[in-house]
Amino acid sequence: MTDWARVTQGASLDCLIQMYGSSTFPTEAIYAAGAELARRSDPDPTPNLTKWRAEIAAGVRDEYTFDDLWRAACRDMDSGSGSIQ
């Protein structure tokens, strides 16, 4: 049995659109394509926190640089949308 959720996660946008509008794929594939399209279209609820974490991971900043991005990331966390990772 094919794991359509896994297949759609690696698929290009064009492929997902074709799958979603197709009648030749199994129903599970069409649902998985629709779910993946919806997941990709969701905006990032914490863009500042995401950017701050990316800069930490890339080594561009350390955890002790308290600037505008840090304050914006804190606001993202305070909004309740962020999670500590």
Notes on the protein architecture:
This protein is an all-alpha fold. It folds into 2 domains: 4-41, no CATH class; 47-78, no CATH class. It has helices at 4-9, 13-20, 27-41, 47-58, 68-78. α2 (13-20) packs across α3. The protein is elongated. The model has no long low-confidence stretch (mean pLDDT 87).
Treating each run of at least 4 consecutive H or I residues as one helix, how many helices?
5
What is the CA–CA distance across the termini? 34 Å
Q: What structural class do you assign from the helix and strand content?
A: mainly alpha
Number of folding domains?
A: 2
Which descriptor suits the 3D outline?
Answer: elongated
Round the Cα radius of gyration to an integer and report it.
Answer: 18 Å
Instruction: Write down the secondary-structure element order.
Output: HHHHH
Strand content bin: under 5%
Query: Segments where pLDDT lies below 50 for 5+ residues?
Result: none
- The average pLDDT score comes to 87
Short structural description:
With 85 residues, this protein is mainly α.
